[in-house]
Each structure stands twice: as structure tokens, then as C-alpha cells.
């Protein structure tokens, strides 16, 4: 659990590397965002803030005036009043009036936020430990979005880039000027999908579906994070939304679907062991290493080791089964819907041949593709 | 002044406890002459009414918003 | 006063003093001994929880993972929260109540002294069990102090069962402590000490005790439901079996919201004792202070879902809890206004307890303002689960509850030890703590608004600068608590002799007995002094 002091000192030297890039970034306030809702949220925030400042000035003003003038060292004599019901009623009524004035715009904004009807585009968002899955419900497109920051940056072995921890392998691409509805749920524990620039934060709860909506006004890339503690890598599952024009969005949809078909075709050809090992390592680092660690040794008591384990060295059928279908009641997820046939074959091959596990046999993508057939089109468990 | 606070005085005291402001005189009267059970029952009743009141307020706000 | 002293001395002269050796502490039924044990225990837990906080802040000093793994980081945030809430703040208040309530109301001891002993001695075992989970396979609880299901059930480490048992024991201890305080205040008051004359510390504790009795069983219920889900195949919180993960949050926060007032109402009581003493003026609006406390207690049962604005409550639910929550600002405001009105046209001096009390009023109010902002549901969507929330509850708990406890300790130390505090060291502790606490927690408002979620071990680069500032502040605050430890020990060991009325403006029965207070006080009920009649 405690790493070497050397790493710490090394990272201490790394301090200068990033702080020059971000020196000017002492952000102190909420973002106004890029939607009408996020702007009204920002306005509410500023209104209540200035009300608090005004009350604070009055209350603390009186207090510090008393502290200064009514101190014994200045010869102040204590007066003996200790009650005045009228004054108390007045200074209780004033906050009530302020609160009512605050409640009215807050209620209006909230009512607006809850009106999720008439969406042009439905996106289902599913939280997984520790990635997001996006389903474009009317467009037959599904993909996972994983953190893409390299491990070396997290462990301070490489310089951190501008979007450290806020970058993913696949953006959630959305059109601007379109009423979009998000349907949120989760595969395991509670997550919370949050993009500050859209003022959307909604919990993704296993077994339940929440909804939220947005209309993005400006194209751009907007970054957020999971906001609800969801286990070990809660801090490593960012959200990246890429807002593009409506035409670009249609083009992107077509490209994404073509790429999916190409991927499926790739499973049909014959792969060599080396090819599978090479791709397997990449898939492993992306999908498995968070728990089982890059060296396959796992975390004792929490996540089992794969190096020298009975499953990775035993019957290949059992190994394929646990990767495809997961193990219920544990953190081991079903990966059949998360990875393509090629990726599954590659990662299983990798697990059976890496870190001193050396069975020398390859699992072919075609074999996995056949196993995946019956489940195609079904909702995952 | 009769010893036992009457119903309206009890009610007023309970409402003061919801509001958070009470005069010394009324409090003294309550603690000297009142019976706790009256205040507890009135308190429970008012708490229920308070909840109903906030619910009605919410309903009203929603109807204004047209939902 | 002096007559009271001598009668006390003669009356207690025939009584036995404390027992010898370890038996004094194991078997004691003396409220002062038990109060001291509670306070020392809570100080120990404060340092333990503080070390965990420093580990968290050290990891967050810079972006990147340097010191701990993310899994261990989560164990630290969880244990820090649990230990500070249940091990440091709550026992400290019970300790102060044990020491002061009988002395304030003229009672010889607590109403149920044996139960008093038991309710204390449960705690070391409960926390030994909780802390032992750190050394278990799979590690300590890692799901946050709010332990949301299913992260704390299906996905929890095996040690969660020990955590559940420890929470049950803490709950039993708290309930027994609360029963004892209620029984003492209602039954053991000296003749003439009517409810209307009760010191405000007793009043706030009386109301807190009722809150404890109302909600600790709810906590016990929710952890039992977890236990059933984990080991007995039920599905309270598992949607796959027809349960509902959000049900957990409703039950938890029905306990949790009154719980946060359990941690602040006795603090209000302490501050309401200290400010009049050093302003040499009676508390302004005593009646309103009592009624505002009652009001806060009532409202605390009606606002729990404001912790859950993002779980997808129906619109009507959001509005209900938003309105109810905003109303809490009213009685809380009454309290702050009354403290300020007490200082107004007083004759103030600024000894250490008063410095802490003044810092409490200012910084707790800042925490109150951020609380009001958090109450606005649509804006809470942006604040929820960010460092803005962390800043908010640390402002009400550290310079709020913890400063009040320290103010209370400094205020009553002369009564406990018979020695006055070294003022210079007291001031040093105050200023270091005051600066440390603000440097730590104020930047958290900024990083929260800028978008940093809470409970993450590593963060994006734009949060780096303020995190570094916060960590420096945390170490300053943490290490300056060693000055506090030094002050307490120095005061126990010696110092200028304290008079019975240690502070010039102090009023109340506790200041009528000698300093240090004899082992047995008020063996026969005292006559109330002129000022209290």
C-alpha cells in the first residue's frame, strides 16, 4: 500500500512540469455552461451567493463592531437587556421573506429540468465499474467509454497531459440544438453521470432508470466525471461529451456503424498467437488491469490473481465462461457485451500466456463469435 | 390570569417552537402552569399539519407550473 | 459561594474518594471519571481520524498516485468519517455532558451511574473492532461513511460484517448515554432548578438526547437490513431481488440528517454558555434559544432527502424537501442573531474559550450559508458530491462542532483540574487552528465549484493548485492540535490556581463548587445562588 519514497520524491520533481501549464488556472466558480438550463442554474447560484454575502456583511459587521467597541479593555460596561420579542420576530421574518424570494426562481428552474418529454434523441447511459456504456437507442449503436489516460501518467512515470484523467477512448458524440433525453441506469453499483457544462447530474442506479434532458447550444468538448463513490476506480471514470453540428452528427453515426461492421468481419479471419497476444495486452490493460493489476497479481482479499490461477491455467471453457458471463455476487463483470469477439479472444489468449502463464494455445475470435451468437440482440443480464 | 394556559395559548407556544422565537413571559407561564402532554399532543398535530402544509404548497406550485 | 464550598467539603469529607489503581477506571460509576474517560477516548479518536485525514490530504497534495492505492484511499475516507463522527465528536459531547450536566443542575451524579459505566466501556471495544478491519483480508470498509448499498452489500469487502457489529455497539452506547442524560435532567435537578432555569447546554443536550433515541434505532435497522442482504439472502437493497438501492438512502438519511444536528446542537449549548460569560451579559433571548433548538430538531426529521436530490426523486418530492430545508435557515438564523445580540453592548474579554466561541459563530455561519446554497435543489445538481459539499460539512463540523468542543474544554478545564490555562499557549493553539482550518477548507469551495468530485484519490490538473493549498492547511491544522494536547496535559499537571468561579463573568451552579471539583459534588442538594433564583 505504501510505495517507495523514491517515487514520491520523483513526483515532487514532476511538480514543476504541470504547474507551469496550469498556473493561471485558479478557477473559483461554477461554469455557466452551454445550455439554457445551465445558465439559469448559474444565475440562481450567483443570486443566492450574493444574498449570503449581504447577510454575512450585516451580521458579521454588527458582531465585529461589538467586538471592537464593547470590549472591557475599552472600558465598556455591560448593558442588561436580554430580551426583545418584537426585534426577534422581525429578524426572523426578514429571512423568511428572502427565502420565499429565492424559492420562486428555484422552483421554476426545477420544473423546467424535470420536463423530459419530446426528445429527438434518446441516449441510454449505463454505469459500469469503472466505465460508461452509451446506447444510441434509435440508431442501433452501442459502445463503452473508458479512461484513456496512460497508467504511466497516473503513476508519475510520464508527464501529465492537459486533459489528465478527463480523457476517454470514445467520446459521447451529441448533436447541438437538439433536444436529447438521457436514460440512466447501472450494471453494478450506483454511479452518477455528471457534465458540469450541461448542468446534468443524475444517479445511475442498478435496476432503475432515471431520466434527464439537455439541449446543447454550442459545439465543443465538455468534460465531467462520475460523482457517486462507486468503488476503487471511482476517480477514473470520466465523461467526455463532444457536441457537433447536426450534419456532422449524422456523418459520425454512419462512420461508427461502418466501423462496427468491419470489426465483426475481422473476427472471421485467422489470427496468429502473436497478433492475439499483442491485441490482448492492450485489451487487458484497458478492461482488466484496474482490478487484476497489469502484472496479473490482483489484490489479495478483493480481486483474485490471474497469474498462476486455476482458471487461467485450467479448462479453457471455464475461462471463457467467466470472462463472457462474469461471476454473480462478485465484482467480476460479464464482458460479452463490452468487448468484441476479437477482443475477447485476444484477452483470454493473453491471460493464458502472459506473466509466466504459458499454455501456448490461442483462443480464436471465430470460436468466441459462435458463442456470442445466441445472445446477440438480447438485453444483457 | 387563569393558571392553566388555554388551547390557543398552547397552540401559540407550539407555533413559537416551530418558528424559533418565544417571549420569556410566555415560556415562564408554560413551564410553570402547563402540562407537558398538552404540548406534546399539540406538537404532533402541528407537525402533521406542517407536513400537509408543505405538501399543499408543493401541489400549488406544481399546478401553477401546469403539471 | 464560600459557604457552599465549606458545606460541600464537610459533606463529602466522610465519603470515600476514588478507588486505587486501574479499578478506579474500570468499575467507576462516578460521572466525573466517566466524563474524563469519554473525553480522553474522543481525543484519541480525534488524533486517529486526523492521521487518516492527513493521509488523504497527503495523497491529494499533487495529481497522480503517490502514497496510497485507490482502494486504500477509499478505506481512509470511510474510516476517517466514521471515526470522527462516532468516535470523536459524539463521545466528546457525551463526555462534556457527563462532567457538566450533574454539576450544572445540582445533582450528585448521573441518574443511572452503572449504565453510564457500561455505555462508555462499550466504545473502546466497538472502535477496536472497527479499526481491526484495516488489517483484514480485503481491507477495511471502503464505501464511504454513508455506506450506500449495493457498494456496501454485494460489492463490499468481507470486513463489512465487523463494521455492522461495531455500528450496533456504538448505537447501543449512544442510546444508553441519551437515556441517562434525559433521566438526569428530568429527575435530578436541585430544588428551585426549574426547567426554565436550566442552563442552555442542558437544554440542547436534552433535545439532542431525544433525537438520539429517535434515530439510533433507525441506523441499527439499516445496518441490520444490510446484514440480512449480505448473509441471509434478503433483497432489501438489491433490485434483482425486487428491492431498491434508493431505499437504503432514504432510511440512512432519515437517521443521518438528525445525526448531523446531534453533532451540532450540544455545540450551540456550549457556545451559549461561553459567550454570556465573556460578554458579561445575560444570553439574549434565552427562551428563543430553547425554542429555536426545538424547531431545528423538529425540522431535522423532515428534510432527509435533500441529501438525495440527484437520485431521481419525483418533482413533488424535490420541491417538498427543498422548501422544508430552506426553512431550517430560520431557527438557525435566530441562534446566530441572538449570539450577536448577546455580545452587543456587553463588556467583552477574549480569553481562549471566547476566541474559539467567536470563531465558531463566524465559521459555522459560513457553513450555514453554503448549506443554504445546497438547499436550492436545481443548483444542488451542480454542487452535489463535489468538494463544495466537503467544504460545507467540514465548516459546520470542524470550526463548528470541534471548535465548540475545544471552547468547552478550555472553558471548563479550570473546574476539572483546578488550574488556569496558560493563556499564551491557548492563543497559540487558537490562531494556528483558525488559520489552518480556513486554509484547509476554504479552497475546497473553489475546487468543488470548479468541478472536482469528492472521494477521488487523484484529480485533473486544473484542481492542482487549490488542492496543494488545502493539504498545507491540513498539516498546519493537524499538527497544531499537538498544542491542544500539550495545553490539556500542562493544565492537568499544574498552573495558576483556579478559583471556584474561574471566569469573572461565569454564572451557574458549576462555578459554585471548588476548583478542582471534589470527587463528589452536591451530595445534598444545593441552595441556588442569588443570581440563579
Describe this structure in words.
Chain B: InterPro entries: DUF2970. Chain B: This is DUF2970 domain-containing protein. Chain B: Keywords: Membrane, Transmembrane, Transmembrane helix. The complex is a heterotrimer of chains A (about 375), B (about 70) and C (about 525). With about 375 residues, chain A is α+β, with helices and mostly antiparallel strands. Chain A has three domains: about 35-70 and about 80-115, Helix Hairpins (Orthogonal Bundle), CATH 1.10.287.90; about 120-265, Immunoglobulin-like; about 265-375, Cytochrome c-like domain (Cytochrome Bc1 Complex, Chain D, domain 2, Orthogonal Bundle). Chain A is about 40% helix and about 15% strand. Chain A has helices at about 5-20, 35-70, 85-115, 150-155, 245-265, 275-285, 290, 310-315, 315-325, 340-355, 365-370, and strands at about 120-130, 130-135, 140-145, 170-175, 180-185, 190-195, 200-205, 210-215, 220-225, 240-245. In chain A, a hairpin with a 2-residue loop joins strand 1 (about 120-130) and strand 2. In chain A, helix 10 (about 340-355) crosses helix 11 (about 365-370). Chain B is mainly alpha-helical. Chain B has one domain (about 5-65). Chain B has helices at about 5-20, 25-35, 35-65. In chain B, helix 1 crosses helix 3. Chain B is elongated. Chain B starts with 6 loop residues before the first helix and ends with a helix. Chain C has a single domain (about 1-10, about 25-530), classed as Cytochrome C Oxidase, Chain A, CATH 1.20.210. Chain C has helices at about 1-15, 25, 30-60, 70-105, 115-130, 160-185, 200-230, 245-260, 265-280, 285-300, 315-345, 350-375, 375-385, 385-415, 425-450, 465-495. Chain C is globular. The two termini of chain C are about 15 Å apart. In chain C, about 65% of the residues are buried. The model of chain C is unreliable at about 1-15 (pLDDT under 50). Chains in contact: A-B, A-C, B-C. At the A-B interface, helix 3 of A face helix 3 of B.
